[in-house]
Design brief:
- The complex is a heterodimer of chains A (410) and B (503).
- Chain A is mainly alpha-helical.
- Chain A has helices at residues 19-32, 36-57, 59-65, 72-94, 103-106, 108-132, 140-157, 164-191, 195-213, 250-268, 270-280, 282-287, 292-319, 330-340, 345-369, 374-388, 390-396.
- Helices cover 32% and strands 26% of the residues of chain B.
- In chain B, helix 4 (113-127) packs across helix 5 (142-155) and helix 14 (402-413) packs parallel to helix 15.
- Chain B is globular, with a radius of gyration of 25 Å.
- The chains are: A mainly alpha (410), B alpha/beta (503).
- Chains A and B meet through helix 11 and helix 12 of A and strand 2, helix 1, helix 10, helix 11 and strand 18 of B.
Chain lengths: 410, 503
């Protein structure tokens, strides 16, 4: 019983010396430590909001609502059919196509989902490590691009034997991303530059950097002049997992292996212990003899390496050549994936697959239900919104406040 | 004004912070509310002040039942509260702080600062507070800031004044002044509720004493009751009020600090030519009012902040310039003054906190991989040895009470052979039972041959533990004296009066 009571008798906390550094850290912590139920309810709420948007944008519903007061049932049934059509399309586009003749082609949407999820898992793992170490790394996008450039260049410019070529491309991708993580880590450790600002700026450097590279003759298909690199050699590509009729490749397996590796790193290694201690309480970590600055650099290097792997994997698995848009929005979507997965590897894998599914469902949603692809973005964004504001979800679903024993005063 | 609480019950989830508490404050008396930290004193006062809703019971003012929806209601009913952490705005003047929240306007809609100034002057003169209404609060001493809080309450016509641990931040002299103010207020008809766990103050000033333990009233006592009687009532078992220790058996000099100086980020001198030695098997206690360089001294020795001059050697080895990790591995144990900020990682489990600075030891890790089994076994053993009250070793450190958190820190720091133990405010905010335990362990460490450096602003603690006392004031050591030095003299030294070295 006494264990739940905490003294308020302590002194004013000298930790307040640094209030500007404290607030983002608190936000991070509340996200990282958010409750699984809140996450599920946030996804559910986002789907409901998505349904409302579907209804509002549906032509049949708009027609029927014109005479809502004489025949309200028409509006309601139109709304219902719009919603069910949209979510059926979503299911068919991301998991299983029931209209297909064979199981083999019916399952294709699921393999697409997993293909889309691989880079999100890689980059999400990297971001999750950063979040747990108290670093708000917004720079995954730039790190992804650097990884893509390295893997792409090694893939098309070098010609090496099977195995070695792929391995070198992947190592190059890790190295490129790690370099792009090292820079903000080093600047934070030595000058105190805030990682959010530095990483955002480095995203631009990477984006315009790849545009510039692709304007060089050495990065273009000979004689074309288009900002597109030659195709990556087949020796540097991820082999397909289930034959060439499916896009799913070994990148997904490696992503799962990376998740296990990150779990070991964070939960079982002394380095991960240090990462977590620095993230949870840098002052106590310092006083325990941990080198907090060096830790920041290492965290950014590991996080950048994983994001680079995402970019490399995308190039040698899916895109197979370098373009300006090769990274898509992987680096930004991965932020959501990491938050949604509460920065834990298993959660990130699940969230990555969810987002891969949303991505895979986009085209079907457009073709089959006639809905704009943007609805997927809205659903993604609403999920983040609700996860960032757990009290809102608790209010909506009348959940009790979590008990903070600390608030029990003497 | 007569204030009565009847059957007040307040729960937080399953935790009953106040269990059917009755309390009557007669007009013009000093009523001491005595209890350990975590006993439920502050919760009770927060209920009274309208900050918490009670789950049961009622509040009566002059025999009429009242309901307070917030502090505003309580203030209007004539109840004032001086919080342990002052609620003052530092860049504002005294008068501005006093008027804050119930500002009077002049006919032209502007603030009537002159009226507020007059009110401050009037109250200040009436009780001899010597507070200038135009002084900036940030320029005032802690004792003066507390008087501003009292003026704030009185300016709102408080008939009952609640003082929450008012002496925690005061020097002995300031404490005496405050107790004198309390007597004056009582004589002028104001009732005082004094929340404290310090027996000496209770005896000095209280008319009635109510003792609370684990959320219940366990008894009332007269101020004539002895300290041992009060402490026994408060803790629920017999406690020794003195620290049992044999005389020191000092060996060679272990820690030697010479000419040590430090400046902070804005260029102010925090340590000014500090020199002292601590021998093996000896406890040197640094006494002083908080903020006179003691914190910096401990942190410079640890390597957390840089020195600007001087040297710190441990067994002849220079510590300055070493990283914290290297200092710790030289055999230095460090108990920080703010355990929640610097001592534990609240969101980590107890077992992880118990190895926070021990991970490099081969028993806890092997080639970068944590030895989970050893970490778990270590936790079970330490929890038993240090009597950490917890449901599980997997509970987070943040779920522990302050005393148990401190036991975790101590257990960790004492798990390796130490040449030097630095403990800052080792028992701050702890209950009597935990204090006894922590003191015993510190003395055991001394008797085991370590040099011990204690930093404490509790004079009782300094006197009880120290083999020698060094008093710090404004970053300087004003003198090193034996532990049987008169308290009055120590108090004067803590206020900056010099005294020749006698040690």
């Amino acid at each position: 019983m006494t264990a739940t009571a905490t003294e308020t008798g302590a002194s004013p906390r000298p930790a307040d010396k640094n209030p500007t550094d404290q607030r983002p850290r608190d936000v991070l912590r509340s996200i990282v430590e958010s409750n699984g139920l809140v996450v599920l309810l946030a996804i559910f709420t986002a789907l409901v909001v998505g349904a409302i948007l579907v209804v509002l944008s549906d032509a049949a519903v708009q027609d029927a609502s014109g005479y809502f007061f004489s025949r309200p049932a028409d509006t309601l049934s139109a709304a219902w059919s719009a919603i069910s059509e949209a979510y059926i399309a979503m299911f068919q586009g991301s998991i299983y196509n029931v209209k297909a003749d064979t199981f083999g082609s019916g399952i294709r949407p699921l393999t697409n989902t997993l293909t889309y999820s691989s880079p999100l898992i890689f980059a999400g793992l990297g971001l999750g490590i950063g979040f747990r170490a108290g670093l708000f790394n917004i720079g995954a996008q730039g790190q992804v691009i650097l990884g893509a450039i390295m893997a792409g260049y090694i893939g098309f410019a070098m010609h090496l034997p099977v195995g070695i070529h792929l391995a070198l491309a992947i190592i190059g991708a890790i190295f490129g991303g790690a370099l792009w993580g090292f820079i903000p880590g080093l600047l934070k450790a030595t000058t105190g530059a805030h990682e959010v600002i530095v990483t955002i700026m480095l995203n631009y450097v990477a984006l315009y950097g790849i545009s510039w590279l692709l304007s060089l003759k050495s990065f273009q298909v000979p004689g074309s002049g288009n900002p597109k690199s030659p195709a990556v050699d087949s020796t540097a590509q991820w082999p397909h997992l289930f034959g060439d009729s499916y896009t799913l490749n070994w990148g997904f397996v490696v992503a799962l292996a990376a998740a296990v590796g990150v779990w070991w790193l964070m939960e079982r290694s002394t380095l991960g212990f240090r990462f977590r201690a620095v993230g949870a309480n840098p002052a106590a970590a310092t006083k325990s003899g941990m080198n907090v600055k060096l830790t920041y650099i290492l965290v950014m290097v590991v996080a950048g390496g994983l994001a680079g792997l995402a970019g490399g994997s995308q190039v040698v698995g899916t895109e197979k050549s370098l373009t300006v848009g090769v990274a898509g929005s992987i680096g930004f979507d991965a932020i959501t994936v990491a938050l949604l997965g509460r920065s834990r590897p298993a959660g990130i894998v699940a969230a990555g697959i969810l987002f891969g599914g949303l991505r895979a469902a986009g085209p079907t949603l457009q073709a089959q239900a006639g809905l704009p692809i943007d609805i997927v973005l809205v659903i993604q964004s609403v999920i983040v919104l609700f996860i960032a504001a757990p009290p809102l979800v608790r209010f909506l679903f009348r959940l009790p406040e979590p008990r903070h024993p600390k608030e029990v005063t003497a | 004004m007569k204030l009565e609480l009847r059957g007040i019950t307040k729960k937080f989830g399953d935790f009953v912070a106040n269990d059917n508490i009755d309390l009557t404050v007669e007009p013009g008396t000093v009523h001491a509310l005595l209890g350990e930290n975590g006993a439920g004193k502050s919760t009770l006062m927060n209920v009274l002040f309208g900050l918490y809703d009670a789950d049961g019971g009622e509040i009566l003012v002059d025999d009429n039942v009242v309901h307070f929806a917030g502090p505003g209601d309580a203030m209007r009913a004539g109840i004032g509260m001086v919080h342990q952490h002052f609620m003052l705005i530092h860049p504002f003047t005294v008068a501005e702080n006093v008027m804050l929240g119930h500002e009077n306007l002049k006919s032209n809609g502007l603030l009537d600062l002159a009226a507020a100034r007059d009110r401050v002057r009037e109250i200040s003169d009436r009780f001899g507070f010597h507070v200038d209404p135009d002084a900036l609060v940030e320029d005032l001493s802690v004792g003066a800031q507390q008087r501003v809080e009292i003026i704030k309450a009185l300016s709102r016509d408080a008939n009952v004044l609640i003082l929450d641990e008012p002496t925690a931040v005061l020097t002995p002299q300031e404490t005496d002044e405050l107790l004198e103010i309390v007597r004056q207020l009582r004589d002028s008809g104001t009732s005082i509720v004094l929340i404290t766990h310090k027996l000496r103050e209770v005896q000095a000033v209280a008319d009635t004493i109510t003792v609370i333990r684990l959320g219940k009233v366990v008894g009332t006592a007269q101020p004539t009751a002895s300290q041992v009687e009060l402490a026994t009532l408060m803790v629920g078992r017999d406690v020794s009020m003195t620290v049992d220790k044999s005389g020191a058996n000092p060996g060679d000099v272990a820690l030697s600090v010479a000419g040590l100086s430090a400046i902070d980020e804005i260029g102010l001198t925090t340590l000014d030519d500090v020199s002292f030695d601590v021998r093996r098997g000896e406890i040197l206690a640094i006494a002083g009012v908080q903020g006179n360089g003691q914190t910096e001294l401990a942190e410079v020795i640890l390597g957390a902040i840089a020195a600007s001059a001087g040297s710190v050697t441990l067994d002849g080895e220079q510590l300055l310039g070493k990283s914290i990790k290297d200092v710790l591995s030289e055999g230095v144990g460090y108990v920080p003054e703010d355990r929640t900020a610097d001592g534990v990682v609240s969101s980590f489990t107890i077992e992880n906190n118990l190895v926070l600075d021990l991970l490099h030891e081969p028993r806890f890790s092997n080639r970068g991989s944590l030895n989970i089994a050893q970490i778990e076994a270590n936790a079970v053993q330490k929890i038993a040895e240090f009597d950490v009250r917890t449901t599980s070793a997997k509970a987070t450190a943040g779920s522990l009470s302050g005393g148990n958190q401190q036991k975790v820190v101590l257990a960790r720091e004492l798990s390796r052979p130490l040449k030097l133990l630095i403990a800052s405010q080792p028992t701050r905010g702890l209950d009597v039972g935990s204090i006894e335990f922590v003191h015993k362990r510190i003395i055991a460490e001394r008797d085991g041959g370590a040099a011990v450096l204690i930093v404490s602003s509790e004079l009782d603690e300094v006197v009880a533990l120290a083999d020698r006392i060094a008093v710090m004031y404004h970053g300087k050591i004003v003198g090193i004296v034996p532990p049987d030095t008169d308290r009055k003299e120590l108090g004067l030294m803590m206020a900056g009066a010099h005294r020749e070295d006698v040690a």
